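[Solved] Which block belongs to which protein?

Original post:
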Amino acid sequence: MKSFAVIGLGRFGAAVVKKLFQMGYEVIAMDRNMEKVNAISDFATKSVCADAKEESVLKQLGIKNCCCAVVAIGNNITDSVLATLSLKEMGIEKIVCKARDEQHKKILQRIGADDVVIPEYESGIKTALGLVSNKFIDIIDLSDEYGIENSIVPESWVGKSISELSVRKRFDVNIVAVKNQLNEKSVHISPSSEYVFEPNDIVVLIGRTEDINRLNNKS
């Protein structure tokens, strides 16, 4: 039977553990927070409170025998990198990592991660695709800090390009899609910086909830 190790038991890591265990796989769940370890204990083959940065600790827990390890440490880049390096040194067949942004993703790829996901961004893309079917949402809370929101473009944006508005630079918020309410076929996924906003455009934003609110208050 295939066995997996999941390091980091936040929302993303805990969801991975539960799903794998539900599918009948052996799962070792690890985190430095004992409360998170206790909370996942009924949904894992083994749940351990330990520091994943130490290769010796990983070996003692039998993680070397796992076919795949998931590093779900998204907020602390140093811990994420060190855990990934330890797993690489152990010769784990496949290492999948969670990253908090593109820069973090590039670092993990360079040190040998086989696959890197940015849950917030990928959830945004899925939401954006739903716009094609008129499945609109007002806001989704991705975590305690991040969210996705879609709203009508303010009048001050009309006639201006994304690059002119410098949304990402000024507010640290990403535009993942644009759709025009009056034109069903006018859908732009990951629009270019040269896209010029039109009246009745709806924009899908992803970022920290406080940054999205700050943008809305200034628009």
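(Second protein starts here: sequence line, then its structure tokens.)
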Amino acid sequence: MTQKTILRALAGETLDTPPIWMMRQAGRYLPEYRATRAQAGDFLSLCYNSELAAEVTLQPIRRYGFDASILFADILLLPQALGADLWFVTGEGPRLSTITTPDELKALKPVEAIHDTLNPIYETVKILSRELPSETTLIGFAGAPWTVATYMIAGKGTPDQGPAHALKDADKPTFEALLDLITDGTIEYLSKQIDAGAEVIKLFDSWAGSLKGDDFLNYAVKPAAKITAALKARYPDTPIIAFPRGAGEKYVGLHADIGADCIALDDGVTAPWAAAHVQTGGCVQGNLKSSHMVTGGDALVTETRAIVDAFKGGPHIFNLGHGITPDADPDNVQLMIDTVRGA
């Protein structure tokens, strides 16, 4: 049996101490990250500089000794590889050229062309697979099709994903064709990450919660299931974590519906509820509120212990319910880790 704790949990083993990593663990809350990003010049240059991207991925492992490391990249690199223009506005986030018409969709590149752009990302994975400690699991990732599509349709992040919902309702063939293209591209992108050394794959559907009724099944669950099935056919031993953030009660049954080895939970559901209704299907990941990384103190310790206790009866990977924020205190991350590990 593998000794890597994350892989053991993903295989269904219940561990005395849950393994731990943290979404966005390489990021702006760390001074060493800020220094390396300044060296790179800007965010996209950092993503595409394999040596520096590997360096920022390794920084939180050196500092904290997390059980897993997640590739430093961005979910919008795939749209860029498909031919969308991508740039970042300081203080405001990403901007993309929009895809809202059949002609704009036809102008995108075929899936087989994405690797020309994404080769530096695969090189980052190769570096990490060599340089990570032997006990540390390497996680690759991509954005789920619905979430990626919301950015491609709106040209930026939006509070309610309104432009994507509008296109879905007004021109379903174009919307679904875009989703299919992203789905096929994601399969190839993640396959190359696994080829390069990624041991686990995570699929981030950050805006899944805005899909209601049948749309959640059709545009969150089914694309994730297609990606998972394709990857499992090629790489049956590579575990997959699905994160349909905001799913709420629809988290129930998703292990089976998606085919994922683990369902990651946001902090909109309680750990006792998830233990009773979601962990019964397999490994769960989560789900401490990110705000505890800012405020720290007794509340962080109490809530961390409560989550560990709630999930102790089954396979569990400790994580936040969303990514750590730039205003987090690095000392609070250490406090969280010490609490999970019983120090």
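Accepted answer:
You had them paired correctly. Confirming on the second one: The chain has a mean pLDDT of 97.
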